[in-house]
Design brief:
This protein has 73 residues and is α+β, with helices and mostly antiparallel strands. The protein has one domain: Nucleotide-binding domain of ferredoxin-NADP reductase (FNR) module (Rossmann fold, 3-Layer(aba) Sandwich). The protein contains 4 helices and 2 strands. The two termini are 19 Å apart.
Length: 73
């Protein structure tokens, strides 16, 4: 799923995350990966009814669980 689709299909993405989906981000570290992470945080905050700090903690937990991984360069 492209970053632009993440925002427009946020409810679906949130449902996938809650159902145990693994998220892999691969590509440009300078722009794309940062944009994807920012969009993920927005989706988590909006559809998970969290503030920015809670969304960041949630994403950190996904990292610990190895459900959010990045291969960026």
């Amino acid at each position: 799923m492209y970053r632009t689709n993440c925002a427009s299909r946020g409810a679906e993405l949130w449902r996938w995350i809650n159902d145990g989906a693994h998220i892999y981000v691969c590509g440009d570290a300078n722009r794309m990966a940062k944009d994807v992470e920012h969009t993920l945080l927005e989706v988590i905050a909006e559809y998970g009814a969290m503030d920015a700090e809670a969304a960041d903690e949630f994403l950190s937990e996904l990292r610990v669980e190895r459900r959010y991984q990045r291969d960026v360069y």
